[in-house]
Amino acid sequence: MSRWRPGLVAALAIAIASFAEPAPAPAQSMLDMVDLSTDQFTKSEMSRADIEAALAKLPAGETLDLFGKALNKLDLSGMDLRRVNFQAARLMGANLSKANLEGVNLDSAWALNSDWTEANLKGASLFGTQLVGAKLDGADLSGAHVAGDMSKASMKGVKLDGANLSADEKNQSMGLMRGTFKSTNLEGASFKGANLRRALIEYSTLTGADFTGASLAGSELGGSDFTGANVEGADFADADVNSARIGAMKNADKAKNLDKARNLERAFRN
Question: 190, 208 in Cβ contact below 8 A?
Fold first, then answer.
């Protein structure tokens, strides 16, 4: 799946038109610099019926290109959207619950406070995607590339098995792109075999989560609650556990390099 395409720079220019400073800013700080009250983030250029009609007429093997489209607050729940390109689209407050988005490109999309409950996002690409305050309870992101911002999101029971949430070292000009979860509810989430190297998971709820075989090396886990989380085979090398609740983790004795985590003395271990 291609991460970038011609015209993305132009689309991003629209999104950051109200930047206070001319210098590039990290993607995770865009919320402070974009005017979310404009038509680009509040209205829709298409209806559900428009999209259904376009998909019905779509020739076999082709993709419906909604690159950069304003689709805010649309109800796309339950739709089969596997042949749609949502790169840089605006999906603010949209409803995509139980939709099929397997393998879909959502890079640089804006979807604050949107609903993806039980959506199929297997193998999807979410690079630079803004999902702050979104609802992804029970969604399946197995094998997905997740280097976006899901802070304050509800992700109870989300499936991220084999997903790549690690820091993207190749796009430093845009800031450190990585899976970002600040004050996110990840209760019962599954991260089996996931790559969370240098991911940011601060002050989040991870109770009962499954990190079997996952890499948390170099991740920032400050203030997060791992009570009851299964960490068998999980790699904690150089992970920052400052103020994290790690005392009641399951299979902690089978975790890798837990003794090499940073700020162990500042973690809650009882």
Answer: no
The tens place of each residue's pLDDT in the chain, 270 residues long, gives 444 454 454 455 444 443 333 333 444 456 778 999 999 999 999 999 999 999 999 999 999 999 999 999 999 999 999 999 999 999 999 999 999 999 999 999 999 999 999 999 999 999 999 999 999 999 999 999 999 999 999 999 999 999 999 998 776 555 689 999 999 999 999 999 999 999 999 999 999 999 999 999 999 999 999 999 999 999 999 999 999 999 999 999 999 999 999 999 999 997
**pTM for the whole thing?**
0.89
Q: Are 124 and 144 in contact (CB under 8 A)?
A: yes
Question: In this structure, are strands 145-149 and 125-130 parallel, antiparallel, or unpaired?
Answer: parallel
Token look-up 């093997």 returns: 61
Side-chain half-sphere CA neighbours of 236 within 13 A: 28
What is the dihedral sign for C-alpha 45, 48, 54, 60?
A: positive
Q: How far apart are CA 47 and CA 255, in angstroms?
A: 49
Quote the tokens at residue 29. Answer: 């700080």
Let me know: does 58 contact 78? Beta carbons within 8 Å: no
The residue type found at 47 is S
Three-state DSSP class for 126?
strand
Residue 57's contacts (CB-CB under 8 Å, 6 or more residues apart) are none
